[in-house]
Automatic annotation (TrEMBL):
One Pfam family hit: TPP_enzyme_C
Membrane-spanning ranges: none
Protein name in UniProt: 2-oxoglutarate oxidoreductase
Span of domain Thiamine pyrophosphate enzyme TPP-binding: 58-210
One GO term (biological process): cellular respiration
Species of origin: Desulforamulus ferrireducens
Amino acid sequence: MAKVIFKRPESLTDKPFHYCPGCTHGIIHRLVAEVIDEMGMRDNTVGVCPVGCSVFAYDYFNVDMFQAAHGRAPAVATGIKRCLPDRLVFTYQGDGDLASIGTAEIVHAAARSENITTIFVNNAVYGMTGGQMAPTTLPGQKTTTTPRGREKELNGLPVRVCEMLATLDGATYVARVSVHDPKHIVQAKKAIRKAFEIQKAGLGFALVEVLSTCPTNWGLSPKEAIKWLADNMIPYYPLGVYKEPAEVK
């Protein structure tokens, strides 16, 4: 009998993703689902969807899911976790949702050290609404609202979320990873697993920022988008662990 060595995680439904070709949301979804499966927590996990490209994540994660208003996922997750402390609770948010309208929400959830996990997907642009400048758009990066490129004097500089949250005493684990090649995908999964384990141990707020692609709005092919991420995003958003409790190192 043939041995099954690769299959869809039970924590994902069989519904096909709606994401654009070359978008790495699908990879990140799978990593989150694999971790939930491996921790044996599928029946005890609650996810909170954002507004943005991943607004339909509730169709893909085969766990209890909530839909939050724009930027409010950390507040919704806080309420769920406080009412159901035995659940594994996570938010899944893009840069527009978390680093723009939801900035105050994520800062104060971290400051309170809410025992939740946030998966923060950074593709440096507003993907769902047509490719406008996001808080994480790189200097010089062209978007539909910065056709000549983001200018420091006119548009300000990008928000580095990990560096900002790591300064807060309440933030327990803060890490930035990427999914542009197999080596980094493996590292990303380890960081996501650690963020969930920290929550399970009751150690407080954990966030994993995942650098992601947006070939459609970057105007690149999927292969070109992967290279653009590696060549342009990683130098501006260095990968690594920005904060980690000594007991889980």
